[in-house]
Design brief:
Elements lengths: L18 H9 L87 H17 L13 E8 L4 E8 H4 L5 E5 L5 E8 L6 E5 L5 E13 L2 E8 L9 H24 L6 H13 L4 H6 L2 H15 L21 H10 L9 H6 L1 H20 L2 H8 L5 H10 L5 H8 L9 H16 L6 H9 L1
Antiparallel strand pairs: 1-2, 1-6, 3-4, 4-5, 5-6, 6-7
Helix pairs in contact: 4-5, 4-7, 4-10, 5-14, 5-15, 8-10, 11-13, 12-14
């Protein structure tokens, strides 16, 4: 008897689309649901340029006497002078970038800092953004501007730069913008991905400032909803230590989720946890970038985001189909897990549940275990596993991305060529999974979790 899993509406492929393309694909009723893998606000609208707010107060911070200065900062004998003006000059619309002098290469302010030190500066920047004075005439924050808090490594000070949201969300935008202290830099948008937009900031000598936090107003229907504070994987922030920190975070959160479920009577196979650990990365790899860029660098970037934002990583990530957060689950599947596993104590509200990593990972593991139970009960699946036509990992990955209920049919009809029958997006999803597995071999949790289950 052919088994049709009730989990027919499953997780879709994580690739970026333009709004028009995404709507077209949704209208065709394809098996996979298009998904953005970048951070974006709840509103699809792009704010129009507007005049920058006037009389913005000077906000500065210094480590002098309170924190240890950044490595190398004491070697600088000159620093850009900050005017005493209390008015933030409006950002010039010029797209001309001053040439950098060849004598001074870009400075990596974070090259010698540990992930813990980076977090300390990020926390400082976020605190600075939240506590700075705002114009009292405004009843709610403006949705037209974003503010970037960036570290000047030569002075160990954090500078604030305000730009229009439209500029911030336009790839390859380049302009000269001044901080609240009147310090000019050249801003270049490398990737425009909502709150996860990556950019570079350099002064006219080519010296690099490190973006720490972006303050991004999220709107819906033209109305302000909440203020997002997020750290993107800016090139100046990335390091091997940061990547390892991200790996440790994902592993620890999965271990916590599996432990909580076990305590509540829901045992998750160790092999399921192993695959889930990989999917936490694969789900957020941009497919176009996977085709064109260094793959190891892409995987490292996703890990770095986990290290930089930890519990808030992918907090604002929502697909066009409504899938959310770290595990990119759709509301239907999440509600099904709540109905099937009331003892798991999953958060009733979907949005809140997806923003909580511990809760979202529990839902993910329950879904994957249920999916595997259904697949493993099918004769075609068991035959494919015995003949090594398919593996458990790739079936779980394919089922997580598209319609798991159709996998037995693909196996029966396609035999050794079953992968050519699955949706193209899922084919690429499996390529990303296999590439990740070959480039970043992870320690198998199966033995550890099996031993823990017996204890």
């Amino acid at each position: 008897m052919k088994i049709y899993s009730p989990l027919a509406l499953v997780f879709s492929l994580a690739i970026p689309f333009s709004s028009a393309n995404a709507q077209t694909q949704l209208a065709t009723g394809r098996e996979t649901r298009p998904r953005t893998v970048f951070q974006r606000p709840q509103s699809q609208e792009v704010a129009k340029p507007a005049k920058l707010p006037e009389n913005q107060p000077v906000i500065t911070t210094s480590d002098a006497g309170t924190k240890t200065a950044l490595p190398g900062s004491t070697t600088s004998t000159t620093a850009p002078s900050a005017p005493a003006s209390t008015t933030a000059p409006s950002a010039p619309a010029s797209t001309t970038r001053p040439s950098a002098t060849a004598e001074k290469p870009p400075q990596d302010a974070f090259s010698l800092l540990s992930p813990q030190s980076i977090h300390a500066r990020i926390s400082e920047a976020e605190r600075l953004l939240k506590t700075r004075l705002q114009p009292t005439a405004l009843t709610s924050p403006s949705t037209d501007f974003v503010t970037i808090a960036a570290l000047d490594g030569s002075t160990s000070r954090i500078q604030l730069f305000t730009v229009s949201k439209q500029t911030f969300l336009t790839k390859d935008s380049q302009l000269t913008v001044s901080s609240s202290q009147g310090f000019p830099v050249n801003l270049h948008v490398v990737r425009a991905n909502g709150v996860n937009t990556a950019l570079t900031l350099t002064d006219n000598t080519g010296r690099v400032l490190v973006p720490l936090v972006v303050e991004f107003p999220i709107e819906k229907g033209g109305l302000f909803r909440e203020m997002a504070y997020y750290t993107s994987a800016h090139p100046a922030l990335l390091s091997n230590d940061l990547m390892r920190s991200g790996q440790a975070y994902v592993r620890s959160m999965l271990d916590l989720a599996a432990k909580r479920l076990r305590e509540r009577g829901a045992f998750i196979s160790p092999q399921i946890v192993d695959v889930a650990e990989r999917l936490c990365i694969v789900e957020h790899v941009d497919h176009e970038r996977f085709r064109a860029e260094n793959r190891m660098a892409l995987f490292s970037e996703v890990y770095s985001l986990y290290a930089l934002n930890e519990v808030d990583t992918y907090r604002y990530s929502v697909s066009f189909a409504g899938a959310g957060g770290m595990v990119q689950m759709i509301p239907w599947a999440y509600n099904l897990m709540r109905q099937r596993h009331p003892g798991a104590g999953l958060t009733p509200d979907f949005v809140t549940g997806m923003r909580n990593h511990a809760n979202a990972l529990q839902a993910m593991l329950l879904y994957m275990q249920d999916t595997w139970n259904d697949l493993n009960a099918n004769a075609d699946v068991r035959a494919a596993l015995e003949s090594k036509t398919a593996t458990q990992a790739e079936l779980l990955a394919a089922g997580y991305n598209s319609n798991a209920a159709k996998l037995p049919l693909y196996l029966r009809r396609g035999g050794e060529s079953w992968r050519s029958l699955i949706p193209r997006e899922t084919q690429l999803y499996l390529q990303i999974y296999k590439s990740f597995e070959s480039l970043i071999p992870l320690k198998q949790k199966a033995a550890d979790l099996a031993a823990a289950a017996k204890s």
